[in-house]
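Moderator note: this is an archived Q&A kept for reference. The question asked for a predicted structure of one protein chain; the sequence and the answer are reproduced below.
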Amino acid sequence: MKKIWFLLKVILALFLIFGGIQHFISPNNYIAFVPSFLPFTIALIYVSGLFEILFGLALFFKKLEIIGAWGVLILMLLFLPIHVWDVFSETPAIGSRNAALIRLPLQFLLVGIAWKVKNNVSEHKLTKP
């Protein structure tokens, strides 16, 4: 079972790093996801992308993986309301209501995986001398 969670940790890390890089390559793709009441839209896109990259990378280093795991979980929880809002929006940022309906359960799945990876990393640290 540990191998499965290790593999999921690696996949989650790569997913975040790739996603974070996309924030810098195509920031305009993320503008619709930033709530209109928040200022500095492009800056928020870059900052969130940077945190995705940093937390994703942290998952690869034993001394930083707890910080990375907590960071990923917090990011997933911060992004969750955006995806919920997207389902109920007249013009979903993801493109269509169907896409938003598909993405929302995936976001909950990512939160669950991030939670489990965080717990797994924390337990691993507690059992090491």
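Archived answer notes: The mean pLDDT is 91.
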